[in-house]
Amino acid sequence: MKEAASRMAISDQSDLKRNFFGGLWHGAFLALGNALTQPQTVLAGFISDLTGSTVWVGGLTTVLTVAQALPQIIAPRYIEPRTRKMPYLLAAIYLRVFSWGLLAWLIYTIGSKNPQMLAWTLVLVLAVFYAGGGFGGIPYTDIIGKVIPPLKRGTFFASRAALGGLLALAGAYPVGYILKHVSYPNDYALLFAMAAISLGVASVGFLIIHEPPRPDGGANLPTWREYWGHAKAVAVHLSDLVAVYILIGFGMMAMPFYVVFARKVLEAPTVVVAWFTALQILGGLLSNLLWARLVDRYGSKFMIQVLSVIAATAPLLAVLIGSMGWRWLYPSVFLAGASLSGQNVGFNSALLEISPPEERPTYAGISAIMSLPLAFLPLLTGWLLKSNRYSLVFLGTTVFILIGTLWTLRLSGLERR
Q1: pTM above 0.85, yes or no
Q2: In 10 A of CB 342, how many CB atoms?
Q3: Which of 7, 68, 80, 112 counts the highest number of beta carbons within 10 A?
Q4: What distance in Å separates the CA atoms of residue 387 and residue 398, rounded to the nearest whole number?
């Protein structure tokens, strides 16, 4: 009996190491792909060069966020009862690989002859890419919740972000080199093709992971009436966490416009896109040790409170010293990167803590849908910035984040015991 228990413990440890490694592999190469196509820097710079409009920059962010959220309205109903979720996650990953590859080819084919057509092509293909990401987020949350134990999740998410940050930081160099030495728009086509390859390599991580089946062997597909009734109850349970996420998310609203502010108002050179990308990644990389320790030792609630203070500081610094020159935006971009990493670690950990194991897909989907108001903030920001009111926008984001800090006092069940 003792020998059997010992063998089971060894097997469990072996599976944990394998799953931990697979998750880190995926996160690392996903981060590299994201560094080559950063929405807040690379994509913002591309759409700004393509259209010359802040409304287009904000509008693209809005479209992509909506596209990511829409599949999560109905996907949990079909995915949650399934015994295994891995096939759905892999399908979503390969859809994203195809999307980046297609976009790279279309940019190379269309070239700079028809910028308006290229802009709409970018929106359409990226909408498919982000819809795949939204669909993939449902099985991802459930799989990670099953294969990573609760007391290891802070370490996992932070280690994943740290390793990914190293590769992403390395990826900032080719971004700068390609933007400087390859003619427009082929420079962006090359970056997107490289991102497609990186995402394909990232998928190997989930081929490594051993996903245990759902303990109860699966469940029957609920009726729509049952599903919506349960979804309403989940929404009530998540309301305070999502409110905090939205309020702190105002800080993310400002992120795509640091590079636009630097380029359009402070007359920074094109290579500033690469510098800002590197600084954003470095901020996330160096902050991960802090986020891991705070989550594992003190719980998600305290970590989110620390995050909110740092997130509020980034746009405030942009107001206070940003107008002195584009290099003075470096601290804001660095802290914004730390905040983005902290948002991923803190809220992913909190969502797994608050979700019953068998209901994680529904919780992941409903939280994404409830966070949808964030999608319209960049569009509003882009409209406000038509009159170059950058200081007003940056100051406003600081105020909303501080309100989110106060709202964290309402969170319960997220303290480490």
Answers
A1: no
A2: 28
A3: 80
A4: 20
| Alpha carbon distance 150, 146 (integer Å) | 9
Element (H, E) at 265: none
d(CA 99, CA 80): 26
* Cα–Cα distance, 360 to 315 (Å, whole number): 34
Distance CA(131)–CA(5), nearest Å, equals 44
Residue 389: HSE in the Cβ half-sphere, 13 Å Cα cutoff = 13
Distance separating alpha carbons of residues 375 and 63, to the nearest angstrom: 7
Distance CA 136, CA 85 (A): 10
Q: Name residue 16's amino acid.
A: L
If you classify domain 29-212+219-410 with CATH, what class do you get? Answer: mainly alpha
